[in-house]
Amino acid sequence: MSTASKQRLMAEYKTLDKEKWLNIELSDGGIFKWVIGIMVINPESAFDGGYFQTEMTFTDKYPYSPPTFKFLRPIYHPNIYPDGRVCISILHPPGEDEQSGELASERWSPLQGVESVLRSVLLLLDDPEIASPANVDAGVMYRDNRALYNSKAQDAVKASKKDIPAGFVMPTTLESAPPEKITEDDNFWNESGGEEDDFGASDSSGDDFGMDDDEEEEGEDEEEDEA
């Protein structure tokens, strides 16, 4: 197995293992196979209160090839197949697909990671794509009978609680929301060491142009002489 892939996955594991909305276990496949309990703690979600056990597997080509992802307990949802696999663009191989119309920016790239996959899946749970559903019946129900669909979602939540590990306590609130997508602008400011104003002066300087106190006093003296 690729050492680079192992190092990348271990770094991601150490970061995500601190999140309260996830419970990650490494299975017999070691770092290349994760069992992840995804917790939905959101009163506005149809799947609020769920502990959804999922599985992600990786190859030694990661992160250049996407992982696989599936729910171990299938969910009645427009974009989830009966075997638990999720139909979502981010898990599709890199590059544009003329047949599906998916852009390269919507599909997998080495800049993506476990975090972005999980975040995308969470968003998909509450905002399904019903134009080309993996589960047609679920798509029709979501469109035409939202109350019944929400009831089925809560049935999935109740079933999911059977997968909560013994001794594990589900959080009732989250100290922080699920991770936001990092943009190129975020990376720029993080690497530059702090945001600056339009003139290149640090916001913490205490004035607009970064003049020190002596320079300000000299300017005031000159104004008094002219007067």
Q: Would you kindly provide a written description of the structure presented here, covering whatever features stand out?
A:
By secondary structure, the protein is of the alpha+beta class. It has two domains: 3-175, Ubiquitin Conjugating Enzyme (Roll); 186-226, no CATH class. It has six helices and four strands. It has helices at residues 3-16, 114-126, 136-144, 146-160, 184-192, 213-226; strands at residues 22-26, 33-39, 51-57, 68-71. A four-stranded antiparallel sheet has the order 1-2-3-4, with no helix packed on it. A hairpin with a 6-residue loop joins strand 1 (22-26) and strand 2. Helix 3 crosses helix 4. The longest helix is centred in the C-terminal third of the chain and has 15 residues, at 146-160. 20% of the residues are buried.
Q: Ranges with pLDDT <50 over ≥5 residues?
A: 179-212
CATH architecture of the largest domain: Roll
Mean pLDDT: 81
Helix content: 25-40%
Strand content: 5-15%
Q: Which sequence of SSEs, written as H and E, runs from N to C?
A: HEEEEHHHHH
| Gyration radius over CA | 24 Å
Strand order of the largest sheet: 1-2-3-4
Number of domains: 2
Coarse morphology: globular
Report the sheet with the most strands, covering strand number, pairing sense and barrel closure: 4 strands, antiparallel
Question: How far do the termini sit from each other?
Answer: 79 Å
CATH topology of the largest domain: Ubiquitin Conjugating Enzyme
GO molecular function: ATP binding; ubiquitin protein ligase activity
Protein name: Ubiquitin-conjugating enzyme E2 2
Region (Disordered): 169-227
GO cellular component, one term: cytoplasm
